[in-house]
Amino acid sequence: MKICVFGAASDLIDKNYIELTEQLSYKLAQRGHELVFGAGANGLMGAAARGFKKAGSKITGIIPDFFKTETVEAIYDKCDELIFTDSMRERKKLMEDKAEAFVVVPGGIGTLEELFEIITLKQLARHKKPIAFYNINNYYDGLIDFLNHCEKEQFIREGCHNLYLATDNEDELIEYIENDEFALGLKDLK
């Protein structure tokens, strides 16, 4: 399965985030999965790439052309396939199209923008791909509480929380993305 990982590009974050993202990525690659990602070399994007690469998995990086000439972020140079796009929008669309599942590790504005788009597309029945938040150090607790609040106040459809899984447990996350019944909300996790 091709798994798109969305996450931070910053190396300034706590090293625990980096270690756990690399560890999860290594486990996913050992299970035969491939990485599709934004081609960043730093932060959690770089950690995901290193984890998949260490286990010998294929890595597809997708990044806008302007990253070659502007100092936005370093490009991961060990991608098996590196695709350059004209825009951030095209980058995101290609990642969404190529992926069969999404893992969202901690990140900032860009990560949140990617996350909300894939949840919205799933809610609108544009895809049925599993979406999992890897909630390292309870990073996403506040966001999950807010989404539950929005649902309670009826700004978000009832049951929207069934469109994704939020967990800090690697094994639960892997089971969820590998099992369509879980990902589609047809079966409860133990």
Descriptive overview:
It is a single chain. A seven-stranded parallel beta sheet has the order 4-3-2-1-5-6-7, sandwiched between helices. Helices cover 44% and strands 16% of the residues. The model has no long low-confidence stretch (mean pLDDT 93). It contains eight helices and seven strands. With 190 residues, it is α/β, with parallel strands linked by helices. Helix 6 links the parallel strand 6 and strand 7.
Strand order of the largest sheet: 4-3-2-1-5-6-7
β-strand percent reads: 15-25%
Radius of gyration: 16 Å
Question: What sequence of helices (H) and strands (E) makes up the elements?
Answer: EHEHEHEHEHEHEHH
Average pLDDT across residues?
93
E-strand count: 7
Low-confidence stretches: none
Helix fraction, binned, reads 40-55%
Return the structural class: alpha/beta
Main sheet overview: 7 strands, parallel
Helix count, DSSP H or I runs of 4 or more residues:
8
Given the C-alpha coordinates, what overall shape results? globular
